[in-house]
Amino acid sequence: MSRILIIEDEPAIRRVLVKILSEEDKSHVIDEAENGIEAINQIKKNSYDLIISDIKMPKVDGMEVLDYSKKNTPETPIIMISGHGDLELAVDSMKKGAFDYISKPPDLNRLLTTVRNALDRKQLVVENKLLRKKISKSFEMIGKSKAINEIKNLIDKVAETEAKILVNGPNGSGKELVAKSIHNLSRRAHQPLIEVNCAAIPSELIESELFGHVKGSFTGAVKDKIGKFEAAHNGTIFLDEIGDMSLSAQAKVLRVLQDNCIQKVGGGKDIKIDVRVIAATNKDLKKEIEDGKFREDLYHRLAVILIDVPPLNSRKDDIPLLIEHFSKNIADSQGAKVKKFSDKAIDLMKKYDWSGNVRELRNVIERLIILGDEEISPKNVKDFIKI
Question: Domains in the chain: how many in total?
């Protein structure tokens, strides 16, 4: 069963379209709207598998409906109906994301073929979205605490958008996992996710790493190099520990966010790029701004959506789930049997001060699985961590 919205201000054409589609498949649920305002109200209330819209209508025209739908329900295909002399508008609608256009009066075979193709496309989009969710499970944050559930909900909301995201949290808390989850749930999931650890790159090389360089631009530049931003074209770039980036590099990143183009070190040519930016830091960037170490304008560009990842010490009730998850993953990777942790061993681990957060917990679990007893006991835990 497919739900279809037909938007047409001429009642006779609207009736013909409803009749044709109803006879093609009696399971279709077909809603009607006689103008753009009515259509937008319908789209707000209902979820459609297909929208068929006239271009020229009073009050709000089909192009405005197209813009609204692409912004709010981007997965829904839209077929535009163009009258005589509307060809230029019809072509423009395709550039804006319409699935196809049909001229008036509609040819029956072309109409039905286009509708079938559009509904097939919608089904593929839905299946692809479900597949991305399934894949993203491998990058999902583990836990049922309130803080983790809030992060999961936020990831689901922002993943399909193009909003820039700033992830805050201490080292080892799972900031990279948040970035991977967002990328794998986004429409860019089939494109590259390029990760850059800004803290690990010397300040004199950061611009070359991010934007690339041309041959001979500096000592050691023996050939042209593609930078991380260019490598991430059509995908996502994850700027980890952006708080450690030099002010000069920050200025260039700001330009990328403003103009969607880069310039290689030693090059004078602008290169257009389409990249989603996710940044992360373990620093208080507002304090860094006060101290003159971070650009305020860059902060506001990045922090469209803020995600705060809590330290493990503030969500210790998630430790049993994390132990179960890591034990299985580590055993699978080593081809070994999954070891059980006794309840007392788990209780003991919940009392530990996990200053290294989830990363430290995983390392301890791996150590216990390799060196501990068949069932991990409190004694094993005490042997490897100081409570």
Answer: 3
Q: What is the pLDDT along the chain (387 residues), one digit of tens a residue?
A: 899 999 999 999 999 999 999 998 999 999 999 999 999 999 999 999 999 999 988 889 999 999 999 888 888 999 998 876 677 887 888 888 899 988 888 888 889 999 999 998 888 777 666 655 555 555 678 999 999 999 999 999 999 899 999 999 999 999 999 999 999 889 898 888 999 999 999 888 888 899 988 887 777 777 878 889 999 999 999 999 999 999 999 999 999 999 999 988 888 788 999 999 999 999 999 999 999 999 999 999 999 999 999 999 999 999 999 999 999 989 888 877 889 999 999 999 999 999 999 999 999 999 999 889 999 999 999 988 876
Tokens of 203: 């300040």
The answer on 100 and 61 residing in a single domain is: yes
Measured over all CA atoms, what is the biggest interatomic distance in the chain, rounded to whole angstroms?
83
Does one domain contain both 301 and 321? Answer: no
Predicted TM-score (pTM) of this structure: 0.66
* Integer CA distances (angstroms), 155 to 163, 183, 185, in order: 11, 10, 8
Do 79 and 101 reside in the same domain of the chain?
yes
Examine the domain organization and report whether 186 and 153 are in the same domain. Answer: yes
Residues 284, 367 share a domain: no
In Å, what is the CA distance from 298 to each residue of 146, 156, 179, 286? 30, 25, 19, 11
Residue 94 forms part of a structural domain: yes
Encoded tokens for 106: 């509609």
For 366, the domain range is 313-384
